Amino acid sequence: MAVRHRLIRTSPERVWSVIADGDRYAEWVVGAAESRPTRGQWPQLGAAIEYEVAFGPVRLSNQTVVRRCVEGSVLELEAHAGVLGTARIAMELRSWGEHCLIIVDEHPLRGAGGMLHNAGVEALIQLRHRAMLARLAHLCESPDAPDPAADGTDRMAAPGGAGHA
Predict the structure, then answer these.
(1) Which of 11, 33, 57, 58 has the maximal Cβ count within 10 Å?
(2) Can you give the pLDDT at residue 68?
(3) Cβ contacts of residue 63 below 8 Å, gap of 6+?
(4) 66 class by beta-carbon count within 10 Å (0-12 exposed, 13-18 middle, 19+ buried)
(5) Positive or negative CA dihedral for 24, 25, 28, 31?
(6) What is the DSSP letter of 11?
(7) Among 102, 38, 43, CA closest to 71
């Protein structure tokens, strides 16, 4: 099981605002390109994002589905990777002083990925997570990052929002 964490030097609310923006998925998820929400309201339960993964001239279409969401703190996804099967990717955001500690846990769920999973694959997932969390930190720590408090609404307490699994 590949578990990685990173301290992001901004609030959990700001980190959540980036993660909860389905249009920004490909900006921080390593391997995803040209992402677009295709079903439901991201990141509500059952919502889906489709994206392409490019290997040189080869492009594969994949989909990620929200399986659990506790708005502002937990997002669990099922990533469908074609013939490789699916993986469970869980992200947990925790307050750490005025910063955000994010913990990512990924493991194969179904299909060939589970059968092929070994220490080498685990090491590759760790490298991918390191790059993904670095991208996410860069987006969230940037002065241009969305500030949930700036628009006067409290997304964490919004009625009818995502988040109840």
Answers:
(1) 11
(2) 98
(3) 38, 48, 49, 50, 51, 79, 80
(4) buried
(5) negative
(6) -
(7) 43
Amino acid letter, residue 102: I
Q: What value, to the nearest 5°, has the Cα angle with vertex 11 and ends 9 and 12? A: 115
Q: Which two tokens mark 6?
A: 């990173």
CA 17 – CA 74 distance, rounded (Å): 13
Tokens of 10: 């901004």
pLDDT tens for the chain, 165 residues: list them.
678 999 999 999 999 999 999 989 989 988 787 788 899 999 999 999 998 877 677 777 889 999 999 999 999 999 998 777 899 999 999 999 999 999 999 988 888 766 676 677 777 777 888 999 999 999 999 887 666 665 544 434 333 333 333
Radius of gyration of the chain (CA): 16
The DSSP symbol for 125 reads: H
Contact in structure between 33 and 53 (CB atoms under 8 Å): yes
